[in-house]
């Protein structure tokens, strides 16, 4: 029976080889399935993050404090599209006026006394955005720009000239207003060329150009502005990259005046004397 041994060994070897090949095929299939599952999970996670940016962008762009935190009772009201906006008037009755548009989380009432003291020859209007302070409604770019134009149209007949000051997010509102109305002078504090481009710097992995509805593309409107413009920059702006401000400045038909406030940050620029002096000189 020894003559059967070689055949048996060959059969065993063939069977072992078959098992190895089957194992490799099974391992390969498992690897492919694992990679497919991981790819699907990655797509789902990426899509979920993009969806959260798309649907949650307004909560990122607009960050109002609860209305019950408003310490100063409003003394001025503008009603547009049935929405009541409530704000403040400082130095009433002056020939010239100033409209102030603040940042995305700013309590503009905190600037009442300073602006009134710095610019005593101007009536100053501070009107919180929709959903901010004591104002009703929900903010959006279209609503904020429309409200700004309505405010200008309401107060302009009572004054010989109306200047506009926009800070950070408010610069996006101020630029669009100045492109559509005869603004006497325009001051832009820590401004940007496009909120989309700012966001792209923070989220380079996301298709923000496709996702963002709140775009504030000031560069598109800058060339239409003929009034004198002052850009006030913070030396250490940690929110708006210098390149974004540079791009806005380049978009104007006539190069704006510039003031860099030394040592200032994005949220502290108002605390520096150079900021006050710049406003006083330009809006005298």
Automatic annotation (TrEMBL):
<dbReference type="GO" id="GO:0016787">
    <property type="term" value="F:hydrolase activity"/>
</dbReference>
<feature type="transmembrane region" description="Helical">
    <location>
        <begin position="30"/>
        <end position="55"/>
    </location>
</feature>
<keyword id="KW-0472">Membrane</keyword>
<feature type="domain" description="Serine aminopeptidase S33">
    <location>
        <begin position="121"/>
        <end position="192"/>
    </location>
</feature>
<dbReference type="InterPro" id="IPR022742">
    <property type="entry name" value="Hydrolase_4"/>
</dbReference>
<dbReference type="Pfam" id="PF12146">
    <property type="entry name" value="Hydrolase_4"/>
</dbReference>
<protein>
    <submittedName>
        <fullName>Alpha/beta hydrolase</fullName>
    </submittedName>
</protein>
<keyword id="KW-0812">Transmembrane</keyword>
<keyword id="KW-0378">Hydrolase</keyword>
<dbReference type="InterPro" id="IPR029058">
    <property type="entry name" value="AB_hydrolase_fold"/>
</dbReference>
<keyword id="KW-1133">Transmembrane helix</keyword>
């Amino acid at each position: 029976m020894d003559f059967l041994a070689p055949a048996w060994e060959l059969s065993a070897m063939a069977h072992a080889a078959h098992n190895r090949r089957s194992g490799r095929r099974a391992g390969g299939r498992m690897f492919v399935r694992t990679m497919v599952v991981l790819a699907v999970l990655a797509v789902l996670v990426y899509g979920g993050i993009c969806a959260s940016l798309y649907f949650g962008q307004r909560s990122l762009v607009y960050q109002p404090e609860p209305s019950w935190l408003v310490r100063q009772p409003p003394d001025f009201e503008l009603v547009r599209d049935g929405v009541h906006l409530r704000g403040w008037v400082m130095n009433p009755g002056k020939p010239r006026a100033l409209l102030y548009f603040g940042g995305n989380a700013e309590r503009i009432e905190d600037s009442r006394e300073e602006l009134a003291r710095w610019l005593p020859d101007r009536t100053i209007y501070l009107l919180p955005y929709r959903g901010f302070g004591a104002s009703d409604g929900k903010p959006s770019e279209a609503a904020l720009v429309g409200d700004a134009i309505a405010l200008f149209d309401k107060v302009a007949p009572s004054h010989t000239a109306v200047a506009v000051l926009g800070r950070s997010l408010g610069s996006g509102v101020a630029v669009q207003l100045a492109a559509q109305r005869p603004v006497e002078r325009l001051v832009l504090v820590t401004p940007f060329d496009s909120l989309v481009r700012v966001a792209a710097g923070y989220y380079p992995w996301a298709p923000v150009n496709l996702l963002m509805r709140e775009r504030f593309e000031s560069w598109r409107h800058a060339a239409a502005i003929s009034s004198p413009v002052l850009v006030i920059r913070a030396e250490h702006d940690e929110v708006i990259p210098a390149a974004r401000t540079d791009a806005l400045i380049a978009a104007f038909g006539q190069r704006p005046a510039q003031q860099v406030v030394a040592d200032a940050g994005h949220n502290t620029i108002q605390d520096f004397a150079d900021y006050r002096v710049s406003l006083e000189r330009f809006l005298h």
